[in-house]
Amino acid sequence: MKSLTAPILLAALFTATATQAHDPSLHKNKGEKPKCEAMENMDHSKMDPNDPVMQAMMKKCMDQLHEESDSAGHHGDSHQPEK
Amino acid sequence: MKTIRTLLFAAIAACAGLAAFIYSGSYPVGADVRHTAFTHWALETLRDRSIDRAAASIEVPALDDPELLLMGGPDYNDMCTGCHLKPGLEESDLSVGLYPAPPDLTEKAADPRRQFWVIKHGIKASGMPAWGPTHDDQRIWAMVAFLQKLPDLNAQQYQILTARDDDDAGDHH
């Protein structure tokens, strides 16, 4: 059970980022966006869902997704992580 | 009696010699002239003993908290990388030019109590500022939490954890 958490969250994350990655409106922001696409290329087998660094990256990327889908008007998206 | 007088005279002469040296202006104060081995040892030992003593009674909170990493990461990236570097940045004008040189904090993490104390109080006559007057303990602990993980982060992980997007840009200062 525990070992499935990371792959499931990651899968949700990547399907969502992939559709949004090339939207030019994302580059309007002054602040720097976390480059969450990079997580896709990391070695998933070494990702421990209990590692605080992993948890922090997940949280950052989930938060970013929600901001983006909110500002783009995509409400009720299916990428909400189940907590 | 005679030896006491000789010792007293020697002590006075030593003080006068020291004063003359200070006034003479012959001490090389430039940051590009390295300390002698003795001065180096004396200053490092003074610093380390002082920090050890002052930091000994500090209680370390739980640092394995993702929220702390997300709070400390952007602060570190904004305020500290010019001197202390980050994954993918091997040197900077400040890391090369400052003496004592700022340690590369991506290499290995010191004791969290030591880090907390140094960040809060700074180090005299070095480039390390005291961040305590302008940042509360919570924010300093968040940076310590981040520093404990920093040596294990690659450039991508670092970027994700430290990116400060618009939403939280406002709460800096």
UniProtKB/TrEMBL annotation, chain A:
Residues 1-21 form the signal peptide. The lineage of its organism: Bacteria, Pseudomonadati, Pseudomonadota, Gammaproteobacteria, Cellvibrionales. Residues 63-83 are annotated as: Disordered. It comes from the Bacteria. Keywords: Signal. This is Pentapeptide MXKDX repeat protein. It comes from Microbulbifer taiwanensis.
From TrEMBL, chain B:
Keywords: Heme, Iron, Metal-binding. It holds the Pfam family Cytochrome_CBB3. InterPro entries: Cyt_c-like_dom, Cyt_c-like_dom_sf. It comes from the Bacteria. Residues 75-147 form the Cytochrome c domain. The keyword Acetylation does not apply. This is C-type cytochrome. It comes from Microbulbifer taiwanensis.
